[in-house]
Amino acid sequence: MTDNVLSDLPPAVATTSSPAAHLKRPLRRKGVIIAHEKSWKRSSIWTLQVAIFIALIGGWELATRLGLIDPFFWSSPSRIYHAFIIVIGEGTLFQDTWFTFKATIIGFLLGSAIGAVIGLSLWWSINAAAVVQPYIVVFNAVPKIALGPLIILIFGIGISSKIALAVAFTAVITALAAYAGVRAVDDDLVKLTLSLGGRRRDVFLKIVVPSAMPWITSSLHINIGLALAGAIAGEFISSQYGLGKIIMYAGSTYDMALIWVGIIILALLAIVLYGAVNWLEHKFTRGQNVKTI
């Protein structure tokens, strides 16, 4: 009887209606066969990454030599290399890199700490959180680069203004992340702690802060890039030192190779900072099941 019913159905319905058919047919999703992807070896991944990098650099150089792209606007790897050698010979590159690095690190640490304190402190009062939250949201929506000229006038053209801009870029992100972590705390766990004789201070230190820590540390990956952007933005506006100053000077003199030198050093600096943040995150979230991209 069942075979007769299945024979009268369309082929697609007949095959999907039978449990045995699911065992024989490969699992499909929108026409794509779902197969188990085997992880590559780390050496294979590194080899492919290096090959892609070499292909990009070689293709770029070849395209400029063949006239496919204008070297005046795009420069070339060989010109960038010569510009890098010249900057190294002048002896100011390390000083400018250290200036940007110092402003970024200090602004990142201060901004993250200030934001975490603000976000965590909102747990103590629902009414205070309701009052302060719109201001945090509005400040987050305001483009921080618009505050640049004002901060430069207040703090001067030294490193203080770059740190202040980095703090403005990062503090609000950490505050929002910390407040989201506070709101995600398990209410039942809080009630249980209070019922067992715990005080609000115990709940805050032993439940709220550890529960919000993964939220705070997850914002650090965003903050390190924002802190670097804030420091560079301050150097773009006015500065005596820094990689942003080098890029602005190169742009004003149409030295495209020198612009790329500044961009490449910024990229290397960002990699170092991102690696440091990864180490910091693993240190703070040790023993917790936290996955990052």
Structure description:
There is one protein chain. With 293 residues, this protein is an all-alpha fold. It has a single domain, classed as MetI-like (MetI-like fold, Orthogonal Bundle), CATH 1.10.3720. 77% of the residues lie in helices and 1% in strands. The protein has 14 helices and 2 strands. The protein has helices at 2-8, 11-17, 19-24, 42-65, 71-74, 77-90, 93-121, 126-141, 148-155, 159-183, 187-195, 200-237, 243-252, 256-284, and strands at residues 28-29, 32-33. A two-stranded antiparallel sheet has the order 1-2. Strand 1 and strand 2 form a beta hairpin. Helix 12 packs parallel to helix 13. The longest helix has 38 residues, at 200-237. It is globular, with a radius of gyration of 27 Å. The two termini are 54 Å apart.
List keywords for this structure.
MetI-like fold, 77% helix, 293 residues, 14 helices, disordered N terminus, two-stranded antiparallel sheet, mainly alpha
| Helical content (DSSP H or I, runs of 4+) | over 70%
CATH architecture: Orthogonal Bundle
Unreliable sequence segments: 1-24
CATH class: Mainly Alpha
Structural class: mainly alpha
Instruction: Please state the overall shape, judged from the principal axes of the Cα atoms.
Output: globular
The CATH topology corresponds to MetI-like fold
Please tell me the total number of domains: 1
Largest sheet: 2 strands, antiparallel
- How many β-strands, per DSSP? 2
